[in-house]
Write a structure and sequence with these properties.
mainly alpha; hpI Integrase, Chain A; three-stranded antiparallel sheet; 17 helices; 8 strands; DNA recombination; DNA_brk_join_enz; DNA-binding
Length: 451
């Protein structure tokens, strides 16, 4: 059995251990008792039930392990493409193959009826490109990026070429601090940290890799994310945007924006997930087979139905339409660029594309009088707390309701049609409702002037 010994040169206690073909060396202990305790804990950890998969953490570098992790894990992640880009930043420093992902068509996912988990990507390993092609006009920008991120890239190289068992929480914290000092946003820092944290959890639970001090990526000091949005587009701003969108050459852009506003869907759900077979015109529903939170059906408002019919007529005019044909022939990048150009032409500031979902949720909250179950069906949120992040009713709205002041149509959330009390339609020969006779939980948007 291995025993601790005193290093003559450093006067530190050390030990060497060979177990299951792995040679392990540890040093730097202040006393023989501490070295013996560490030796015993490490021996028990490595002899625990469950044989480590692959070569184990003592013989595998982080880059090699991340490559194996990506090939096993990324096909079933909807965010696999973004995860692959973050993993490739480590792989480039180790001269290993890089990850290249190709999307799997929805038909291929549906055909796998014998498997419970869908596959969204095909993962391939491609040789590293020694000279990455930089688009014209971006050379100075890329050069500035490389100079700004030199410290973090040096730490990524150190981590990528280290054995997984030798990675410490201190090194990971150094990488986090370096990325923060380079001016990266809090969400960017947390996403890169999440890659390492999820990898160590996967290696422990799936590959049975044992780590002396647990997951070194947990318990790190991370910046706080403050990404709450409360920007709601008004009817007046939406009207100006509609005028600006008339200059857009792509006919799908205004229709996609209109559908997002009228349905509260996410951009990925509308642009990527839906085909014509998912549109149920008789029930006014859109069936999403692979939404962010799983399968769900989106109830379509009258305005959304108008948009879907316009899309159908356009698709028929372009060419033959099959049930598997996508509803939109439009990428997210193209839609985002067109949205930014339209906002500039319409002089509308501070509005992001995702704010259409906030605007739609707020509009339906007012139309449905805060009916939370119905709102969660529309937006697809599972909990009230998630939904309330998108319903952006401010103090001015509450003050208006308390004092029964009318809601101005131009200032209302985009898509909300303000119907005043004197404009409410009644059944033929039915008496007009008196405002004083309204139920206690109903507040008229405007009071009728009495003579």
């Amino acid at each position: 059995m291995a025993k601790p010994y005193l290093e003559p040169r450093t006067q530190a206690w050390s030990f060497r251990l060979r177990i299951r073909g792995e040679d392990i060396y540890r040093t730097g202990f202040k006393s023989e008792a501490l070295a013996r305790k560490a030796l015993l804990e490490l021996t028990q950890c490595l002899k625990a039930p469950g044989r480590p998969a692959l070569a184990g953490p003592w013989k595998t570098t982080l880059a090699q392990a991340l490559l194996d992790y990506a090939c096993e894990r990324l096909p079933s992640l909807k965010s696999g493409e973004q995860e692959a880009r973050r993993i490739n930043r480590f792989l480039r420093h180790a001269n290993t193959p890089l990850l290249a992902l190709q999307p799997v068509t929805p038909n291929a996912c549906d055909a796998r009826s014998n498997e419970s988990q869908s596959v969204y990507w095909r993962v391939a390993c491609v040789p590293p490109d020694p000279e990455r092609r930089i688009p014209n006009g971006l050379h100075k920008h890329r050069q500035a990026q490389q100079q700004n991120s030199a410290a973090s890239e040096l730490l990524r190289a150190q981590l990528a070429n280290s054995k997984v068992a030798d990675i410490t929480s201190h090194t990971i914290q150094q990488l986090i601090d370096a990325v923060v000092s380079e001016g990266a946003s809090a969400s960017t820092v947390r996403l890169e940290h999440a890659i390492l944290r999820q990898f160590f959890n996967y290696a422990r639970d799936t590959w049975h890799w044992k780590f002396e001090v647990g997951n070194p990526a947990t318990g790190r000091k991370l910046p706080t994310v403050d990404n709450a949005r409360d920007r709601v587009l008004t009817n007046k701003e939406w009207h100006r945007l509609c005028e600006a969108l008339k200059a857009t050459r792509n006919p799908y852009v205004p229709l996609a924006l209109g559908l997002l506003l009228e349905s509260a869907m996410r951009c990925s759900e509308a642009l990527v997930r839906i085909a014509w077979k998912d549109f149920d015109e008789s029930q006014c529903l859109l069936h999403l087979r692979a939404a962010k939170a799983g399968k769900r059906s989106v109830p379509l408002s009258p305005g959304a139905m108008v948009v879907m019919r316009q899309l159908w007529h356009h698709a028929r005019a372009v060419g033959p339409v099959s049930p598997d044909s996508p509803v939109f022939n439009l990428s997210y990048e193209a839609l985002k660029a067109a949205w930014q150009r339209a906002c500039e032409r319409a002089d509308v500031h501070g509005v992001r594309l995702h704010d259409l979902r906030h605007t739609s949720a707020t509009r339906f909250a007012l139309e449905l009088h805060g009916n939370m179950p119905a709102l969660k069906v529309i937006t697809g949120h599972k909990t009230d707390s998630q939904l309330l992040r998108y319903v952006n009713i401010n103090a001015g709205d509450v003050s208006r309701l308390l004092h029964r002041r009318p809601l101005d149509h131009d200032d209302a959330p985009a898509g909300l049609r303000v119907i005043r009390a004197e404009q409410v339609w009644t059944l033929p020969n039915a008496p007009a409702p008196e405002l004083d006779d309204l139920p206690s939980n109903v507040i008229a948007l405007a009071s009728r002037q009495r003579r």
